[in-house]
């Protein structure tokens, strides 16, 4: 049975992800309000997404699986996550090489082969780094069941292990740094899913103070966060966002919001294709005007609209007619 509060939460989270993809490299000039807002959003939106992913994994019984089921889990997670990661990585890399001949393109690859190598081995240079969440989620999805089994179902031991990884300094190769950075939030989501009604009752009861703390933290990170280490503000604001933002989408006034539910149900499709639509929209608009100063608001609205709506239209009009692509995109 689908949880509408999780669909709404995923809808809100994917909107924030698209917002974060609007500016890939160079900030627009003379737009003083955008960098602090993005800094605040980047302080929690991906931790919140991993929390939701961990909760879904727990509710779907993908965590406490016996060793005999690990091979099947590996196969299903690879089909669900690694396949779209590879296919979309190749599509983005090839698309950037082609589009760079006609318009401005952020971070174009030198070649298809170099782009694919960077996609896997050097994520920091990847032309399709926006897909990193799929690679990290795949690793977490297949390693946490092993960790839970080794810990004899004592989730708190697994949690302590990921707390320790928060302070590790692994290389960026193979997304190791992102795995260590975001694994804790995934495991907290697993715990929240396992707690069931005890967790949701608690966040509902403490909604107002949780939101007050979160709002205060958001303002502080947006205003002063540039002076703090990224991992520190990610950890602090990310942890408080999980109960606070989840409680927000459970409010009665949002219970009939079909927009967030729709966005949530198409979240994988939006995640996979939003940067393509954003990049195309930006390239077209840059042929007409710059995106600095007051022009940036036009770019923001246009890129958010195409980044959110474009993938849904593509799914409904094209991909549903092609069963393999329909299954791959959720």
Describe this structure in words.
This protein has 330 residues and is mostly helical. It has one domain (4-328). The protein contains 15 helices and no strands. The longest helix has 30 residues, at 70-99. It is globular. It starts with a helix and ends with a helix. The relative contact order is 0.16.
Order of helices and strands: HHHHHHHHHHHHHHH
Structural class: mainly alpha
Number of helices: 15
Query: What summary fits the major beta sheet?
Result: none
Number of strands: 0
Helix content: over 70%
Mean of residue pLDDT values:
92
Percent of sequence in beta strands: under 5%
Shape: globular
Q: Rg to the nearest angstrom?
A: 20 Å
Question: What gap, in angstroms, lies between the N and C termini?
Answer: 16 Å
């Amino acid at each position: 049975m689908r949880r509408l509060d999780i669909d709404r939460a995923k809808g809100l989270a994917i909107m924030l992800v698209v917002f974060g993809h609007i500016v890939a490299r160079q900030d627009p000039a003379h737009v003083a309000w955008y960098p602090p807002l993005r800094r605040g959003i980047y302080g929690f939106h991906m931790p919140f997404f991993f929390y939701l992913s961990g909760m879904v994994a727990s509710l779907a019984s993908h965590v406490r699986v016996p060793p005999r089921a690990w091979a099947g889990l590996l196969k299903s997670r690879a089909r669900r996550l690694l396949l779209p990661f590879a296919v979309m990585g190749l599509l983005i890399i090839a698309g950037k090489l082609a589009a760079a001949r006609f318009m401005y393109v952020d971070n174009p690859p030198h070649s298809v082969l170099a782009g694919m190598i960077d996609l896997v081995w050097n994520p920091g240079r990847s032309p399709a780094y926006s897909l990193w969440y799929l690679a990290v989620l795949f690793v977490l999805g297949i390693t946490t069941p092993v960790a839970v089994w080794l810990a004899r179902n004592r989730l708190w031991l697994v949690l302590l292990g990921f707390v320790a990884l928060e302070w590790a300094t692994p290389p960026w190769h193979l997304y190791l740094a992102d795995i260590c950075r975001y694994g804790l939030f995934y495991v907290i989501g697993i715990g929240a899913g396992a707690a069931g009604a005890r967790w949701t009752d608690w966040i509902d009861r403490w909604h107002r103070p949780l939101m007050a703390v979160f709002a205060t933290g958001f303002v502080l990170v947006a205003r002063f966060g540039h002076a703090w280490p990224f991992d520190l503000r990610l950890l602090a604001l990310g942890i408080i966002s999980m109960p606070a933002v989840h409680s927000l989408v459970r409010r009665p006034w949002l219970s009939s919001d079909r927009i967030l539910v729709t966005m949530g149900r198409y979240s994988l499709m939006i995640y996979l294709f939003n940067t393509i639509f954003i990049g195309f929209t930006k390239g077209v608009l840059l042929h007409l005007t710059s995106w600095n100063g007051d022009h940036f608001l036009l770019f923001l609205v246009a890129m958010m609209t195409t980044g959110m709506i474009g993938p849904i239209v593509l799914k409904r009009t094209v991909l549903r007619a092609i069963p393999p692509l329909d299954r791959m995109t959720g």
